[in-house]
Amino acid sequence: MDISVVIPLYNEEESLKELHDRIRKVMQDNDYSYEIIFVDDGSTDNSWEVITQLRSEAEQVKAIKFRRNYGKSPALHCAFEKALGEVIITMDADLQDSPEEIPELYEMITNDGYDLVSGWKKKRYDNKLTKNIPSKLFNATARMVSRIKLHDFNCGLKAYSKSLAKNIEVYNDMHRYIPVLAKNAGFTKIGEKVVQHQARKHGKSKFGSSRFFNGYLDLLTLWFLNKFGKKPMHFFGLLGSAMFFMGFIAIILVGALKLYDMHHNNPYQLITDSPYFYISLTMMIMGTILFLAGFLGELISRNSPERNHYRIEKELY
After folding, report:
1. Second-level CATH architecture of 3-228
2. For residue 221, how many C-alpha atoms fall within 13 Å in the half-sphere facing its CB?
3. What angle, 0 to 180 degrees and rounded to 10, lies between the N-to-C axes of helices 13-30 and 47-57?
4. Helix/strand/coil (H, E, C) string of 242-304?
């Protein structure tokens, strides 16, 4: 099969028929073999009924329905497991992504050798204050941390090689950082294509402003797991040892200053009356806790079933 089109959705009953018809036309015009996987993320409207009707009319339509709203990442994860196409295209169900972009995305994967091609909505029709400006800040931070030169990490319109889609785990809200997940998994051929952004025709956006704050926390999580996920002692142990050492030296200095004053008959105070004693003691305690956290992290990592899970691209044996 050439293409799997994955469409996560939540309460998009008005858009589904038109979206399906446009995708089918593109596939027929280009003579692609294909499937369309709708993932109903716990919709409360008639989205599932519309999907069921589409399925009765076209065998290429497949669908997954969640019992409740889990989010976009679980929807993508389940669809990637089921997808059969050599190229997997993801797009949103709100008609803001154009199915007419599919042939060029497909060619970039199959002919140009990209593992992942991310859409770039260079001209957007969203609210500039609530979406465009925060999105630019978000993408600038993601570029700086990940070193991936993309303008729009969170664009729903993306193309993936089958190998990539089957070898990454999209969880929590990590759909925002699929290019980062791909890079961490060893897929470095990541490209970008300018795509058309359409104004929303039906309903309203399902994403609130909290996604931008959560996005930064998720980016920090990805950075830490990629760098220290299999060697937590390298982070916690180093930081804990440094804090303990600085606290220990500080306590010695506090004691040495008191001994100096006593030896020269200068006025002095008890060590326990000095605020620096308690600061130093706190640093030593925190350093010990961080070191133990690293030690426990190592124990957990060594007993993890994923500790020797490596992605092998090719074998000759």
Report:
1. Alpha-Beta Complex (3.90)
2. 13
3. 30
4. HHHHHHHHHHHHHHHHHHHHHHCCCCCCCHHHCHHHHHHHHHHHHHHHHHHHHHHHHHHHHCC
- DSSP code at position 83: -
Query: Which secondary structure element, helix H or strand E, spans residue 76, and what is its range?
Result: helix 72-82
Please state, for a pLDDT cut of 70, what percent of the chain lies above it: 85
List residues bridging with 194 in a β-sheet. Answer: 120
pLDDT digits (tens, 9 = 90+) for 61-84: 999 999 999 989 999 999 999 999
What 21-29 contacts at long range (C-beta under 8 Å, 24+ apart), as own/partner pairs, is 22/98, 22/99, 22/100, 23/99, 23/102, 24/58, 24/60, 25/99, 26/99, 26/100, 26/102, 26/103, 27/3, 27/60, 27/102
Cβ 4 vs Cβ 76: under 8 Å: no
Asked if the model's pLDDT at residue 98 lies above 90, the reply is yes
- CA–CA distance, 12 with 120 (Å, rounded to integer): 23
The neighbouring-strand residues paired with 89 are 5, 159
Which tokens sit at 157? 């319109």
- Whole-angstrom distance, CA of residue 21 vs CA of residue 12: 15
d(CA 302, CA 296): 10
Which residue type sits at 19? L
